[in-house]
User: Which sequence fits this backbone?
């Protein structure tokens, strides 16, 4: 079993919809949580970063972490066709430097 | 501000050969990490270098090695290439915090 699990999708939604992307993790030592967006033929781009349970909002994006259930979510409001990409969640230990453990990624398609 | 630069972008090698990939981090970044991305296994951590020293290592065979130079540029080497080494190899650099963790666009390696 992978330490970070993510539904691969694809997830197809109409433009303007609210998108919910989810990950679960099994390692209790994970303290930092990130969401990356990856377009085709590009490297991952950091969207959200958090280290505490609760919600963190940035524009149309909200990251939610529930450490008690080891559950990570990313919500995208008013989704746009330009949001079509693969979304990756990642976690790291509190003392593992920059060694990230990634979920497998969810492919999102937002249709005009 | 220049991003993380990886060269070459595409590479085709024959089984049994060796290959060297290069990564130039963002100016001032002293940490460089390498990841392998495949459709089956997703993004997997290879190793991290900080100030020319390997700080973390993932679970890959010894055929995968790396180094970092005094100017923070990094190279990774894969010897005795196998078909399964075909992947997108991504490099990420940072000042030391996860928020500044920036990926390059990767080198697409195909082993035939």
Assistant:
């Amino acid at each position: 079993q992978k330490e970070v699990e993510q539904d691969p999708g694809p997830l197809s939604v109409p433009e303007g919809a609210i998108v919910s992307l989810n990950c679960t993790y099994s390692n209790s030592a994970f303290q930092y949580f990130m969401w990356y967006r990856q377009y085709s033929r590009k490297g991952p781009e950091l969207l959200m970063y958090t280290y505490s349970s609760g919600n963190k909002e940035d524009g149309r994006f909200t990251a939610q972490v529930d450490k008690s259930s080891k559950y990570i979510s990313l919500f995208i409001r008013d989704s746009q066709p330009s949001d079509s990409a693969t979304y990756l969640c990642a976690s790291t230990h509190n003392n593992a430097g920059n060694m990230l453990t990634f979920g497998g990624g969810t492919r999102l398609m937002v249709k005009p | 501000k220049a991003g993380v630069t990886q060269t070459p972008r595409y590479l085709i090698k024959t089984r049994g050969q060796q290959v060297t990939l290069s990564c130039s981090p963002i100016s001032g970044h002293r940490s460089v990490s390498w990841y392998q991305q495949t459709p089956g296994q997703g993004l997997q951590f290879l190793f991290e270098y900080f100030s020319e020293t390997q700080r973390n290592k993932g679970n890959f065979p010894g055929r995968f090695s790396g180094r970092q130079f005094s100017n923070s540029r990094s190279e990774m080497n894969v010897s005795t290439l196998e078909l399964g080494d075909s992947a997108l190899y991504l490099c990420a650099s940072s000042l030391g915090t996860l928020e500044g963790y920036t990926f390059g666009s990767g080198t697409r390696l195909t082993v035939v």
